[in-house]
Every structure is written in C-alpha cells, then in structure tokens.
Design goal:
CATH class: Mainly Beta
Number of strands: 8
Distance between the termini: 32 Å
CATH architecture: Beta Barrel
Number of helices: 3
Order of helices and strands: HHEEEEEHEEE
Strand content: 25-35%
Largest sheet: 8 strands, antiparallel
CATH topology: Lipocalin
C-alpha cells in the first residue's frame, strides 16, 4: 500500500501507465521493478521473426492503444487499473497477407481479447489471461 500511495503522489501525465509501472497490473509490487518501465512509447513482439514487421503495441493515451497485428494495423481502447488491463473492440485495416501473417494476426487479436492483466518480467511486458497464463510478450522498441 505504501508503494501505491507513493505512486499516486508522483503520477505524471501518463496517469494509469505510470501507476501501472509502480504497481503492476497484478496488484502487487514487484521487487526491483522500474517505475517507468511501461513508459516505452512502443512495444514489439519478443518472438518476432526477422522477415517482416513485428507485432506491436503502443499506448496512445490513458485509454487508447494501436499497433501492428501481423498483417494489418489496429487501434482500440484499453482500460487500465492497478489490478487489470482490458482491451476493447480493436478495429483493423483490411489488407490480405500471407497465411502465416494472417495466422499471427488472428492469434494476437484473440490474445488481446483474452487479456485480463499484465506484468513486467525482466523488462518484458507480458499480457496475461484470467489464470495468469502468458498470452503475448513484448519488449520495448529501442
């Protein structure tokens, strides 16, 4: 609770993103976690293949996200609290791509819909389902 109160007092314009960096989405502070970890402007898929653009996630504001889903760009809303992260109704462009890229996109959009929380793990942002199973992993774009 002490960390939570400290974060509330020092909240920046990033609001919930900064708060989420202080108290991870799971609701408990992680030892050694960098409070500014979620301030990365752009997150990319940890397991991205080299031959195409990686799946990406970018927090556009306190309530909006956008990125690349594997074939198409997407945008949607997000609800961030210290205990949860919920993505709502992402819309995508409608390009047709290679079957592998289309498969990646479908798996990613399904993962966004199933996300209930997230955590930082050694500098990697992990999206988690309701049972805290890792759905997708992102690293900050350097």
């Amino acid at each position: 609770m002490k960390i939570f109160k400290s974060c509330l007092r020092s909240m920046t314009w990033l609001g919930p993103l900064f708060l989420a960096g202080c108290v991870p989405f799971g609701g408990t502070a992680e030892v050694g976690m960098d409070p500014g970890a979620l301030r990365a402007p752009h997150w990319i898929d940890v397991d991205a293949l080299q031959d195409g653009p990686p799946v990406s996630l970018s927090f556009q504001s306190d309530s909006a996200v956008a990125g690349f889903a594997g074939c198409n760009r997407y945008a949607g809303s997000v609800q961030l609290t210290p205990q949860s992260v919920l993505f709502h109704s992402p819309s995508t462009t409608r390009m047709l791509c290679e079957p592998e890229a289309m498969d990646t996109e479908q798996r990613y959009l399904k993962a966004l819909g199933a996300t209930r929380s997230a955590r930082m793990n050694k500098g990697v942002l992990e999206l988690l389902d309701g049972q805290r199973k890792v759905l997708w992993r992102f690293k900050p774009l350097s």
